């Protein structure tokens, strides 16, 4: 047990306990645990201490110390409140007849949800305009961005109806409100899908079930379906013309194309199942439910809204594991999906159903003021992943990282020998990750040493056993090689920075032209038509074609605004890497080179 002063020692131990392998990789063998490691690690450590406060704290002084540590979380990890007080006062509770309020009422009355949070709308426009016009590294066309930002809808989320102290539960839901793939398989339609001789994967079952269930009037998730947007605005679903204009020639664009192609392949593979269902149930199933837009919508929903939930095992669980809990499964959890992501959240570690109460409970680890937006963490995600699967990006994201390719010239006469060394060391030639702060990844510098190696150095490396090779190249081989390696990296990063800087600031101002151009207009029109066919088939047509088109264009505008934030982070990252390389080069030049005869 820890007394006052001892809580800080307990925090150091909790930081070590909560370290991930990725954090260990970046921090090295002996991280300094007396200070915050990262926003994610600090949140996890504080959350663990709060959860075990009865053991950690002994006496009022210790409790106050823990409270102070929780209260100073943002300052300690270098984050400021994402929503200033002046904007907090502008948040508005959603109207009583809004889908969000109806969903909250449904789960409170039907499922016994307990929460002192409420759905609200936050001034997204002000946040976007502030983020895009302050401390940006992009050649931004401010007027165009402001104009587009004004067309982006207000941000919906959850706000506190009262103040919360660290350790309080902000929301509790019964286990029955959690819908995993295993739960889907137990429904009538889920069992039917499992019987179709198509060897459907769990992911396919979840998506096809969603495509049909969202139109079912008696669905237990009806209030959830009604609260969801028609367009999520992720890189998976925006028009291709908008995607390519917004992301230009970046690794993220390639990832987006690959992800979209994967969904296209899965959609085509599921077509026989769609035909089977339409033939077997012609009076119930509708052609419009099984169009591409409906499939993409279902996929975006599960990517953006589903969370990993671990539940206690049922008494009839037949798995061989001795654990008392089932493996975590992706699940839709109504109401929780309204909580927005933040790099400095109020709630983490909320994915385990309590085995005693059988409730999913969200506990805050830091104080929440009345009226403040309550945020959770989707994980330590870079902007590329947020934009790809969630449709947004965070200004100065502390978890941002970008892929960079440092491929060797194909004309290098030693190319194959260098590749052989990298293969033996189990290292990659091309793809490495860089971050906007901190040291460079040791693996990237090591790979550059091999790429810059001379014939004699490669011959020496050839004699080193495979098991010891990686350790060898992670250290300086020689002064000449180190200088050549750093120069090689500078050239590659400078090229990447120059390429990223080519992205025209006119993407924002040209957006309307892109949407009205032949390709963009055609893609928007197809999205709208397929959306209408699905809604007509489900008997839920609540908007005109013009309104649906407006919503589709709105999601495209939001994607462009957030892609600017992504590019801002990309450019800042490359600039940081170049600065770090300059510092490494300067430090190298300060080192006295020892003559070959061994005399100083």
Automatic annotation (TrEMBL):
One of its GO terms (biological process) is methylation. Residues 123-379 form the SET domain. The keyword Transferase applies. The keyword Transferase applies. This is SET domain-containing protein. Pfam families: Rubis-subs-bind, SET. InterPro entries: Rubisco_LSMT_subst-bd, Rubisco_LSMT_subst-bd_sf, SET_dom, SET_dom_sf, SETD3_SETD6_MTase. PANTHER family: GRIP DOMAIN-CONTAINING PROTEIN, UNCHARACTERIZED PUTATIVE METHYLTRANSFERASE. Keywords: Methyltransferase, S-adenosyl-L-methionine, Transferase. GO terms for molecular function: protein-lysine N-methyltransferase activity.
């Amino acid at each position: 047990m820890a007394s006052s002063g001892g809580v800080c020692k307990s925090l150091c131990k909790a930081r070590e306990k909560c370290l991930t392998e990725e954090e260990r990789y970046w921090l090295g063998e002996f991280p300094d645990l007396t200070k915050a490691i990262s926003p994610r690690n600090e949140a996890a450590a504080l959350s663990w201490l709060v959860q075990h406060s009865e053991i950690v704290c002994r006496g009022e002084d210790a409790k106050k110390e823990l409270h102070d540590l929780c209260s100073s979380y943002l300052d300690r990890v270098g984050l400021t409140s994402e929503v200033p007080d002046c904007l907090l006062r502008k948040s508005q509770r959603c109207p009583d007849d809004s889908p969000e309020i109806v969903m909250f009422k449904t789960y409170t009355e039907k499922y016994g949800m307990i929460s002192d949070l409420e759905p609200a709308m936050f001034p997204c426009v002000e946040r976007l305009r502030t983020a895009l016009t302050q401390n940006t590294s992009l050649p931004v066309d401010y007027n165009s961005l402001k104009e587009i930002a004004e067309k982006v809808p207000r941000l919906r989320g959850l706000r506190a109806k009262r103040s919360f102290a660290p350790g309080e539960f902000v929301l509790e839901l019964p286990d029955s409100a959690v819908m995993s793939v295993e739960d889907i398989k137990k429904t009538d339609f889920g069992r039917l899908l499992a019987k179709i001789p198509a060897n459907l994967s769990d992911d396919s079952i979840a998506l096809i079930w969603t495509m049909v269930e969202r139109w079912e009037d008696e669905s237990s998730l009806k209030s959830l379906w009604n609260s969801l947007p028609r367009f999520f605005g992720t890189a998976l679903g925006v028009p291709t013309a908008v995607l390519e204009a917004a992301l230009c020639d970046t690794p993220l664009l390639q990832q987006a194309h690959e992800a979209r192609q994967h969904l296209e392949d899965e959609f085509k593979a599921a077509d026989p199942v769609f035909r089977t269902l339409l033939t077997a149930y012609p009076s119930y199933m509708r052609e419009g439910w099984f169009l591409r837009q409906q499939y993409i919508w279902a996929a975006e929903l599960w990517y953006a809204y589903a969370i990993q939930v671990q539940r206690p095992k049922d008494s009839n669980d037949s798995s061989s594991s001795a654990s008392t809990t089932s493996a975590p499964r992706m699940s839709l959890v109504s109401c929780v999906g309204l909580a927005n992501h933040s790099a400095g959240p109020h709630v983490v570690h909320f994915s385990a159903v309590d085995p005693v109460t059988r409730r999913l409970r969200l506990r805050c680890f830091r104080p929440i003021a009345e009226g403040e937006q309550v945020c959770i963490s989707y994980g330590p995600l870079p902007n590329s992943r947020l934009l790809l699967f969630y449709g947004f990006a965070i200004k100065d994201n502390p978890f941002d990282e970008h892929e960079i390719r440092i491929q060797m010239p194909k004309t290098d006469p030693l190319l194959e020998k260098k590749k052989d060394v990298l293969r033996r060391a189990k290292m990659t030639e091309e793809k490495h990750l860089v971050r906007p702060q901190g040291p460079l990844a040791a693996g990237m510098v090591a790979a550059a040493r091999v790429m810059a190696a001379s014939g004699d150095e490669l011959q020496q490396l050839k004699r080193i056993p495979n098991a010891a090779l990686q350790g060898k190249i992670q250290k300086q081989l020689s002064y000449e090689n180190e200088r050549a390696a750093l120069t090689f990296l500078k050239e590659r990063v400078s090229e990447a920075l120059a390429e990223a800087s080519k992205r025209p600031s006119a993407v924002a101002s040209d957006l309307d032209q892109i949407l009205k151009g032949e390709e963009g207009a055609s893609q928007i029109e197809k999205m709208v038509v397929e959306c209408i066919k699905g809604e007509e088939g489900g008997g839920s047509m609540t908007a005109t074609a013009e309104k649906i088109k407006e919503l589709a264009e709105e999601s495209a505008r939001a994607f462009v605004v957030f892609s600017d934030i992504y590019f801002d982070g990309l450019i800042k990252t490359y600039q940081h890497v170049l600065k770090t390389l300059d510092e490494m080069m300067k430090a190298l030049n300060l080192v006295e080179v020892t003559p070959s005869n061994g005399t100083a």
